[in-house]
Design brief:
This protein is an alpha+beta fold. It contains 14 helices and 24 strands. α6 runs parallel beside α7 and α12 crosses α13.
Amino acid sequence: MAQEILVNVTPHETRVAAIENGVLQEVSIERERSRGLVGNIYMGKVSRVLPGMGAAFLEVGLERTAFLHANDIARPNGSEDNDEVQPTITDLIEEGQQLPVQVTKDPLGTKGARLTTQISIPSRYLVFMPESNAIGISQRIENEEERTRLESIVTSLAPGLSSMTEMVETIDMSTFQSQLRGEGGYIIRTAAEGATVDAIQRDMSFLQRLWESLQQRLSTAAAPALIYEDLPLVLRSIRDISVDATERVLIDSQETLEHVSEFVKEFTPELLPKVQHYPGERPILDLYSAEDEIDRALQSKVDLKSGGYLIVDQTEAMTTIDVNTGGFVGHRNLEETIFKTNLEATHAIARQLRLRNLGGIVIIDFIDMLDAEHQRQVLRALEKAFEKDHSKIAISELTSLGLVQVTRKRTRESLEHVLCEPCATCNGRGSVKTVETVCFEIFREILREQKQFDAQKLLVVASQEVVDQLLHEENASVAELERFIGTPIQFQAENSYNQQQYDIVIL
């Protein structure tokens, strides 16, 4: 599917939007003060080993210690198959030890970054894995002939690696092979589909040179230290896009355009004619109403064209999506109305997960369907809608409660976490105590204060809404309370207080 990439650059923020068929599908945001860490390589120092969790915390120079699980620690090649008993975290590392690690997940919420010692370095067509000796290939390359061709190319350029298929052609690259160490494995990326031998050779040579320079830095670095920083958002996005599926890349910054052009000339010269400057007076993300779509992606309700709607609720534990018919009444019968609403919802759900960058556990509550064939078609439609998503996704069968469980891998903060913060009043709960509830809390607190301090006079400082309620609707209750405790009560409105905030002052 043809897409356009819109790049908006300001001094402190960069935004990259992917447009497909005139509709915003994905947006990535990177701010100068809080750049993503995924892909960065550090020399870390083990600060704490937790055998009960099978994990350790490492100092890598970040604000919070980073998390390393035992399953993310590389073993010597072949040791996993030979060991009858898997080693524990204390067998693998010890406190005070220095080791190179790579960030696989940015700090999310209160959690520190997630680490691995299984380092991988991506380029345009390949991902280099120093700790491996095998060749993998992206599952998104479905053509078997193309898979075999790419695999044989990489096998010929790096002999000694374990290939998934037999070589079907021989490439005379003896001069190039002599420059390789024969160490490390490769994953062939989706972008490599249709790539020439020369292009893959350049990629492999670049990765080898980069890894040699990183090895030199690692050998002399004292933890904690940053060894390698991944590309900035714009270049990372350009590196990962499909040239054939991209119609154009519009950039509204002349300086960024020059940097991108230099990068493209070296790594993807076929993309260069599609990289263009956007000189328009209208903000670039106003094209295709992308700015409005970003604002709507922060709201919980998502309207469907039919009149139905979704309710998306993101929490720390999981994300839930509720499908509703809303104003859609259908034409034939209720079952058909429900089926059509659920089908339409599958495409909207897949798009919203990409656009909002929602990950982890996602529970989808489709409208209950009685027809088993309708259930099967909705699940197939959901799977097909997720094919466009670059993140790894797993979908369960429909449960007895009519729920579909989805897991989506996310390595960076969601759109809401990047652009928003928890409400200072409700602390992210989405609701606050009613004025009446706060008034009754004040009454109980006054009783406690009077018994403890035997005050001569009390002053209640609260928000304007609460004071108004106390002086009008609760006036009789206040008078009764004054008689009961034998102490006069005064009230003072404080505009800076939120609805739940109050103080009781003893005079």
